[in-house]
Structure formats: structure tokens, C-alpha cells
Amino acid sequence: MSTFTRGFRGRRRGEDDRLPPGQYLAEDFPVLSAGPTPHVPLDRWEFTIDTEAGQTHRWTWRELTALPYEEPAVDIHCVTSWSKLGTTWRGVSLDVLFEDVETTADYALVHSYGGYTTNLPLDDLLDGKAWIAYRYEGEDLTPSHGGPARLLVPHLYFWKSAKWVRGIRLLTEDWPGFWETAGYHNYGDPWREQRYADD
Amino acid sequence: MQTDHLDGNALAGPLAEIFTADVSAAVSRCATCGLTGPVAALRVYDRAPGLVARCPGCEEVVLRLVRGPDAAWLDLRGAVSLRIPLGGANPGAVATDGGAAGGG
Amino acid sequence: MTRWRVARLVKVRDENPSARTLVFDVPGWPGHLAGQHVDVKLTAEDGYSARRSYSLAGPEGVELTVQRVPDGEVSPYLTLDMEPGDELELRGPVGGWFVWRPDGPAPVLLVAGGAGIVPLMAMVRARRAAGADTPFRLVYAVRSPERLYYADELARPDPGVSVSLAYTRRAPEGHPRPPGRLTAADLGPYGEADCYVCGPTGFVEAAAALLVELGHDPARIKTERFGPTGD
């Protein structure tokens, strides 16, 4: 039973039907981080996809940014309950990166510079649902927001959109990531409010 | 200069919800590099879905704490051991009324 | 386990144009050590709640000093809107490491940056309340005179406690030290002491490094950092 604090209102909650349950509208773009911000020089940056058969597909920064890009405008939803509507990004669709990848794996474990990991079904990365994003609102993605590049999977809670992304490992069995092993939901659909492991 | 973390002192409240002893005053040993020091001196990243405490020596994760509405998840894999001071020398940290902890 | 207690605001005191001390009545408060903090929870009528941590400012009772952060979520409420009689929830005291006990024999060096004065002032007050004769030295770095907390109390003589103010941006007329960031000279000369440093993260890192440079044993430097915004 909580005691109400008279006159306290806190952050404004939005009334937008684009807001999933339990979310409020953020005006700024909060920076969340579970550790120190890695700074990766672009000439040493790489992105890899490792298949369950042991094949590695590799892109340098120059190669990644030479690929055809998209400019998605998407709503993002952080599990700490802020949402930001209509954010615009530039990035390479994972459909492009997976074009030559042969796999029968069902699961993906995304890993980042700095050691962060997050897991999701491979299907959630394909068919126009996910990007490796390197520009935000017309500017290069800053290190505090995950630059030089982050995963962008806006239909799931934003912890799945790994900052400082370094690669994807394809697995035949699900392997829970950093927050998924610490009480957060394994899938994380904001519209079903799948925040915690029990939800 | 790293300016995005707090000290392990910030763990005192959230851990007091779980343990009767003051874990922030305990001495932990990092499972990665072996550095030993007070939990209160770990580097705590709190602007995240949970609290992440890292070793000030090697920056590996020592402790993670997530608080949901009905449960807390505590991961201590990064600590080999905790030496927890016990006894009557710490009156401020002893609060044994045992009431149900409040949710959000 | 520590549970949430209901705290009723009984008194407020403005410390300066942007900071206010709030005194709460908390039935069943078990007492605390100087340097400990409390977690505070505010719940809006629609159930939305926000939590913050604040250091206890006094040796007895629940007294918090809060700096108003423009555009903050909680601090504007606490420093402008909350009135005596209003209630919030509070958990504590917590934190048994960044504390000073009146029976501690070693000399004490306190280094405060801005709002970091609060738990250190609790130590100064606890020393006075206990009649302890432990030598205390307080170095208080503050942006400008309008940002000072506890100005009158710090100006009053307190035998055995030496206070030096280091203004970082603007000093009052006639202040002997020109404004500027904290230096080793402000903290020296070295004398064996238990050191307590509290302030914003960047300040704490810098001050702790200066103390080590002066020859202090890192194991005797205790720090408490505020978050990057901490509203």
C-alpha cells in the first residue's frame, strides 16, 4: 500500500495510442548504460555474423557503410518506461547482411564492444524488422547512444537494440543475454508488457 | 575521465531490502582479477534497467541487481566471496522490522 | 529487511536560492550514523512513483538538504511545492561504509564538492553533538557564494574543526583564495587522516586523485559520488 504524496505529479504521462502500456513519453533521449562507454576506432571496427556451422561473415566500417541503407522512422520503447516516438535513423537492414548467410538456426545472440549481450529469435531480426544503425536524427550516432553503430530492433524493448554492436552469433539453442539472465523477459514485447521474467 | 557511475554506496538501499546485514560494507573479491575491496567502492552503473556494479580494477561485472514489482534478481557471479561484517558495531544498518518491502 | 516508512514534512528551511532543508517526522526511526543516506519514494495520485537517494544532514532525526535541479523530476517538487504536513515514503538509514563514528580516533579530512557537503556536515554535526575532540578539517568547494549550504553554521567557531571554502567560479569580495578548481594546495599539507570525499562524480575522481598525490593512503579515502544528473 503506497502513501500518495500530495501535489507530486512526476513526469507527464502521454495519452498517445502509440504508447504501449505502462510507458510515458520522453522528450529527451535518456542515455542508459550498464558499463563504461567503449570507444572503437573506425579503422578497427568490424561487424560479424557467425553461423552455427562455424562460418564467419565480416564487414569493416567502410564495407558496412557502402551497403544500401534505409532511413527508418520508428517508435522506441525502453523497459525503464520511457518511449520516444518518430525517431529517425540510418542503417543497413539485417536482410541485406543476411543475404549470403546460410543458416537453419532459430536464435541469435547479439554481442557488443564492452561485453554486452542480448538474445532474440532470428526471425525478429529479418523481414524489415531490424537494422545496424549508424546515424540518428541526421547525425553520426554518438558513443553515448551506441555509436559508431548499434542494433535497432524497435518492435522489442530497447535493451534488445544493443549499443556498440559487434556481431551476431547464430545458435540452434536460445542463449539468454545480459539482462535476460538478470530478471528481464526473454522476448520483451512492449505491447504485451513483457518486462520481467515473470511477466 | 569516466563520469557515468556511482559508488557501491548506492547499493546500500536496494540491498537492505533483501539482507539484514549491510552488504555495501562487505568486502568482495572480484572473480575476474582478484581485486579485493569494499562493495561500497565498486563502480555502480544505475542508469540502466538494473544496477550493475563493476570492479574498479578490471571493470568486469561483480554484481547485478534487478528489482521487479514482486521480486528481485541478484547475480553475484562476478564475486568470489563477500566478507560481511556482523555484530553490534553498526546500529544504523540494523532495521529488523521485517515488513513487506514496498513495490513501485 | 528495511521497509518503507511514512515520513511527514514538519519544517523547511531555505539554505540558499536553490536548496532547501526538509525536516521530517518519521515514527519509529531507528537512528543513524553520520554519512548514511535514505531512499525516498514519491507516489503520484495515479500510482506513478519515483525514487531518489538523499544523504541525511543531521546527527539525529531525518533532515535532508535538496538541491533543485532545473527540469528535474523530484527536486523541484521537494524544494518548491512540498509543504509541512505532506507525506512521502522513505527507507533507511542505509549505507554502513561512508560513515563516521564519534569514537573514531583518527583525524578527519572532509572534502565536499557542492551538494556533497550534506553527509559531511552530518559528520561535523555528529562530532559536535557527541562532544568528540577528534580534529576535523573541512574543505568545501562551491561554485559561488549563493551556492553555499549552512553558511551561518560554518562561519560560527567550532573548536577543533577548521573550515576552508574554495570557490570555483566566483568568490565573495575579499576572499583570500582566488576562484578556481580545487588543487592539492587546498587539501595539503599532508597529515595522516581518514578522508571522506563527496560530490559530483568528476569532482570526486579529481579530489581523490589529489589526496593520493599528497600521500594519503587510498585505503583511507572513502568516496560518495552523485550521479550525472541526480535530479
UniProtKB/TrEMBL annotation, chain A:
CDD domains: arch_bact_SO_family_Moco
Region Disordered, residue ranges: 1-22
Chain ranges of the Oxidoreductase molybdopterin-binding domain: 35-179
Pfam family, one: Oxidored_molyb
Protein name: DMSO/TMAO reductase YedYZ, molybdopterin-dependent catalytic subunit
Automatic annotation (TrEMBL), chain B:
Protein's name in the database: Uncharacterized protein
InterPro entries: DUF6510
Higher taxonomy: Bacteria, Bacillati, Actinomycetota, Actinomycetes, Streptosporangiales
Source taxon at top rank: Bacteria
From TrEMBL, chain C:
InterPro entries registered for this protein in UniProt: Cbr1-like_FAD-bd_dom (IPR008333), FAD-bd_FR_type (IPR017927), FNR_nucleotide-bd (IPR039261), MRET (IPR050415), OxRdtase_FAD/NAD-bd (IPR001433), Riboflavin_synthase-like_b-brl (IPR017938)
Keyword Cell wall biogenesis/degradation found: no
Matches recorded under CDD domains: FNR_iron_sulfur_binding_3 (cd06217)
Lipoprotein found in the keyword field: no
SUPFAM superfamilies: Ferredoxin reductase-like, C-terminal NADP-linked domain, Riboflavin synthase domain-like
Gene3D superfamilies: Nucleotide-binding domain of ferredoxin-NADP reductase (FNR) module (3.40.50.80), Translation factors (2.40.30.10)
Cofactor: FAD
Taxonomic superkingdom: Bacteria
Entry protein name: Ferredoxin-NADP reductase
Source organism (scientific name): Microbispora rosea
